[in-house]
Write a structure and sequence with these properties.
By secondary structure, the protein is an alpha+beta fold. Helix content is 21%, strand content 40%. The protein has a 17-stranded mixed sheet that branches.
């Protein structure tokens, strides 16, 4: 079987920045084991698979090691592929995930792609020494979302200098760990660690901003925010808190177009 595949740099203005994702638009669903093998072979943070239904696309996301509930950058990359290579002419696009529900997409006039995702509510964590030991720095506050821990710090400089223990993070009961603080030139900055999923440090994590956006919107008392993820590749996100939903926007650029055989 042959399948078209695209690699897109998401939350990026140029190649070699942002977060790369592989995208396969399938005619019909193939078995989960094969999708996981393709993701493992790609060895990117995420590989997205999508199948067209009547007026929307079903979507699933795989890291090299596991299927995940939601992936922002791979959703952005999939939307870019549909707009660019599959003749989707309407600015609006709808995805549906069995794990995350309805995901609404809009292509903006400036070329950005805006994603509308469910908000991830946070619960404060009181005793978290194991988490702090894994991250390697005592936090100002710690929260738990649906799948991730969020640790808050005082400054961008703290976020930049933290050196986590990936072996200890891998033992935590979560998908990954987000660390965040106010930014010097943006509203907030973050980093994301997910060795449990085969991703020691993710370049740009759209789904983490379903937790980060509501937190910083309340702290900074503003609903429209600009964020930067401080990975070596880096990425900029434009976020808006909408109550039960959040809007996350960014640009994407193509890296490769090819065909896989399996």
């Amino acid at each position: 079987m042959k399948q078209k595949i695209y690699q897109i740099d998401a939350f990026a203005d140029s190649v070699f920045t942002g977060n790369p994702a592989a995208v396969c638009i399938l005619d019909a669903w193939i078995d989960g084991k094969t999708m996981q093998q393709i993701a493992m072979e790609n060895n990117l943070a995420e590989t997205a698979f999508a199948v067209k239904k009547e007026d929307y696309y079903e979507i699933r996301w795989f890291t090299p090691e596991t299927e995940v509930d939601l992936c922002g950058h791979a959703t952005l990359a999939t939307a870019y592929v549909l707009y660019t290579y599959y003749g989707h002419t309407s600015s609006n696009l709808k995805f549906y995930s069995e794990r995350s529900g309805e995901l609404l997409i809009q292509k903006l006039e400036n070329g950005s792609i805006q994603m509308n995702f469910p908000t991830d509510p946070l619960e404060p964590i009181v005793e978290a020494s194991q988490i702090e030991d894994a991250v390697g720095a005592k936090a100002k506050a710690i929260f738990r979302g649906k799948t991730d821990y969020l640790l808050i710090y005082n400054s961008q400089e703290e976020i930049e200098t933290i050196t986590p223990n990936f072996h200890l993070i891998d033992q935590l009961d979560c998908r990954g760990v987000i660390i965040s603080a106010p930014g010097n030139n943006v509203d907030f900055v973050s980093r994301f660690f997910a060795p449990q999923c085969g991703i020691p440090e993710d370049p740009v994590t759209g789904s983490a901003h379903t937790s980060l956006t509501p937190y910083w919107a309340k702290v900074l008392e503003k609903n429209t925010l600009t964020a930067k993820q401080l990975s070596p590749r880096g990425g900029t996100l434009h976020c808006e808190y909408l109550g039960e939903r959040v809007s996350i926007s960014g640009k994407a650029v193509p890296y490769l177009e090819g065909e896989i055989t399996f």
